[in-house]
Specification:
With 199 residues, the protein is an alpha+beta fold. The chain has helices at residues 3-35, 128-132, 168-171; strands at residues 36-40, 55-59, 65-66, 73-74, 85-89, 97-104, 109-113, 116-119, 122-123, 148-149, 154-158, 174-175, 179-188, 194-195. The strands form three sheets. Strands 1, 2, 5, 6, 11, 12, 13 and 14 form an eight-stranded antiparallel β-sheet that branches. A four-stranded antiparallel β-sheet has the order 9-8-7-10. It has a two-stranded antiparallel sheet with strand order 3-4.
Length: 199
Amino acid sequence: MDRVKLRKIWDYWYEEWIKPLIIAIVLALIIRTFIIQPFKIPSGSMRPTLVEGDRIFVSKFIYGARIPFTNKRVFTVRAPARGDVMVFESPLDPDKDFIKRVIGLPGEEVEIANGKIRIDGEIAEEPSFIHNNYYYNRSVFGKEGEAFEVPQDSYYVLGDNSASSRDSRYWGIVPKDNIIGRAFFIFWPPKRIKILRNN
């Protein structure tokens, strides 16, 4: 086969298959790194909001997309808010990702008393899910009658299934640098498809 035919074959394969594939891979990496990432729920710690096997999309840009291999964030839309369902790297094991609800914001004092969340001494009225949920006292950072002050650039998070969740009550706060993004949509299974709201 002569060089002209080989060149034509290469040009065809490059234009029709290789180039589109490279572009698709690059776009997928950009989307996954900076915009949106899928996750699967492994446990029941967020019941009834999320159940085992739910597959969700997480917005990585809303809190600022993290530049790979750094702690720098770009294009921040807003900071985490109370009630957000947040995905983050475990403070104890960076290789594990956790999902919990944001309860305490930087600089606030959080206390669990009689099943209710108190922020700076006042019962949290909003969002309604937090107000209506029952939270159990557990471990070092969730003792009855003891308020925990959330450091700057950190968050206090709890599982919605308070009776069966390892969360800030056990290991403390989530540093800002550990945040991956905000869960906003269940896309699988079909009967569970819905937008996740913070109320």
